Amino acid sequence: MAWTYLFIAAVFEVAFALSTNATKGFTRLWPSITAVATTIVSVYFLSLSLKTLDVSVGYTIWTGLGSLGTVTFGALIYKERITMAKVISFMAIIGGVVGLKLSAGV
Fold first, then answer.
1. Range of the domain at 41
2. Which residues cross the membrane (predicted)?
């Protein structure tokens, strides 16, 4: 279940990042409420996953998946450019996430 919790936490981490952009500096009510709520849910599921996973593995994968999701959906929703440098960085993050999962032994 730890990996399921971690994946759920990462999904809410992406939602947090995207909604934070929509808050316009926390001047818009509903995006601000969404940002706070998704942060709480994300950290809660991260904490559940860390009952089993090492913090060095769980936290790093959480932030890595959050980064990948944020860049991907930032491009789709906010029309941000995906450059070759971003693609290469994606590949490095994915490699790191896979390596950490394989090394976790859980």
1. 2-104
2. 27-47, 59-78, 84-104
pTM above 0.90, yes or no: no
Q: List, for residues 1-25, the tens digit of each pLDDT value.
A: 999 999 999 999 999 999 999 999 9
CB contact set of 99 (below 8 Å; sequence gap of 6+): none
Q: What is residue 53's DSSP assignment? A: S
Paired tokens of 90: 């994606």
Q: Which residue type does 95 have? A: G
Cβ atoms 81, 75 nearer than 8 A: yes
DSSP structural state of residue 19 = H
Stretch 30-55: mean pLDDT: 97
Q: What distance in Å separates the CA atoms of residue 41 and residue 8, rounded to the nearest whole number? A: 9
Mean pLDDT for the stretch of residues 94-100? 85
Amino acid type, 57? V
Into how many domains does the chain fold?
1
- Quote the tokens at residue 82: 């995906």
